[in-house]
Amino acid sequence: MLSRVANTLYWMVRYVERADNLARLIDVNQQLLLDFESLDSERLRGFWQPIILSTGDEEAFNKLYDETGSHEVIRFLTDDPRNPNSISSCIALARENARTVRDQLSDELWEELNALYLFSRSDEAKKLIASDPSRFYENVRRSAVTFLGIAASTISRNEAWEFMDLGRHLERADKTTRFLDVSSYLPATEEGTESVSAGVLHWTAILRSCGAMGAYRAMQREINARGVADFLIFSKDFPRSVRYCIERVDISLHRISGTPRGAFSNEAEREAGRLLAELNFGSAESIFESGFHEYLDALQGRLNHIGGEIFETYVLMPERVQTSPLPKVATFSDVAAWHMEQQQQ
Questions:
Q1: What's the CA gap between 225 and 202, in Å, rounded?
Q2: What's the whole-model pTM score?
Q3: Average pLDDT, whole number, for the chain?
Q4: Of the candidates 249, 241, 245, 177, the residue with the CA atom closest to the CA atom of residue 212
Q5: Alpha-carbon distance 345 to 343, whole Å?
Q6: Which residue in 242, 247, 245 sits closest to 296, CA to CA?
Q7: In total, how many domains does the chain have?
């Protein structure tokens, strides 16, 4: 497979996954604020600023907006064309990537992504964002899930699929850590408010953002910080947990290179395998002892590093190839000797 095609498929799915996760994050945060009707405007802004901080786009946001209110944050993350990570921008980038490799995609997959793109640019979408944003985000989530379902049903399990699966799980792991990291930026509860209740509502919102409420409740766990962190980081079975996603990343990388798992042939495989080993033996207790935000911040850095190594391994020409000397031109005697050797064999 051409490196350009692999990179395009990889980013196409990452952008769709990113749009899906942003829609989940904004919608659930809006629902959460309905339980805090007594908040004044200052504290209300304090519940939107963590969304920007957790996405890592605070610098770009501060250049475009003077205030951190609900209208500004929703506009920035939903349909602001100046933000390359807004939902509309991600959908447009995913569609553009898909357009350049249509021969690698099924007709159904292209039609679904193109329909999502047209919806995000339509007057109907603008009206929904203004009057019924929850319905807009629901449409984005459903289209993203449908896109991934069609991909799973119509794409052959070859290198193209592995690069798509690689991008999906790496992006999903990153967004799960950012959902969890929102708690690090939330404003402190006022005196006299029920902090325990507020904490339960917040961690419930995080579970809903990841679509994990049903799976978490099935384990009959109490909703608290340690339980939710343990489930969304270390679960071996839930498909949005960090550990599950990194295992899928490790599997895809080894299938692409053909190297057996447990060994590595490039830096991306080495970093993914090392991180997976740490997650296999990690615990929520050790995370909170060392610092929850610090752990998540370091984890996001390692995920970015794995993404960078994937790019250098499969997209950029390796340095050793770039600096290698030109091959020796074969002479007639060399060719004759080679033919003689082949005939003898």
A1: 9
A2: 0.85
A3: 85
A4: 241
A5: 5
A6: 242
A7: 2
* DSSP states along 121-159: TSHHHHHHHHH-HHHHHHHHHHHHHHHHHHHHHHS-SSH
Of 154, 177, 206, the one marking the end of a domain is: 154
- The domain of 141 spans 1-154
Residue partners of 140: CB distance under 8 A and separation at least 6: 19, 20, 23, 87, 91, 116, 120
CA–CA separation, 55 vs 178, rounded Å? Answer: 6
If asked whether residues 141 and 179 sit together in one domain, one would say no
- Sequence length of the chain is 345
Q: Nearest Cα to 209, choosing from 55, 32, 18, 25?
A: 25
Closest CA to 279 of 287, 289, 268, 270: 287
Residues paired with residue 261 on neighbouring β-strands, in sequence order: 263
**How high is the pLDDT of residue 326?**
43
Distance (Å) of CA 324 to CA 3, 240, 321, 330: 20, 42, 5, 17
Burial (CB count within 10 angstroms: exposed 0-12, middle 13-18, buried 19+), residue 245 = buried
pLDDT digits 0-9 by tens, 14-69: 999 999 999 998 887 776 666 555 444 555 556 677 788 878 888 889 899 888 77
The rounded distance, in Å, linking the Cα atoms of 17 and 5 is: 19
How far is CA 190 from each of CA 32, 193, 275, 333, rounded to the nearest angstrom? 17, 6, 39, 88
The residues pairing with 263 across neighbouring beta strands, listed in sequence order, are 261
Coil/strand/helix, residue 263: strand
The encoded tokens of residue 115 equal: 């329909």
**Cβ neighbours of 302 (radius 10 Å):** 17
Long-range CB pairs of 186-190 (<8 Å, 24+ gap) are 186/46, 186/47, 186/50, 187/43, 187/46, 187/47, 190/43
Q: Which of 130, 154, 178 is the last residue of a domain?
A: 154
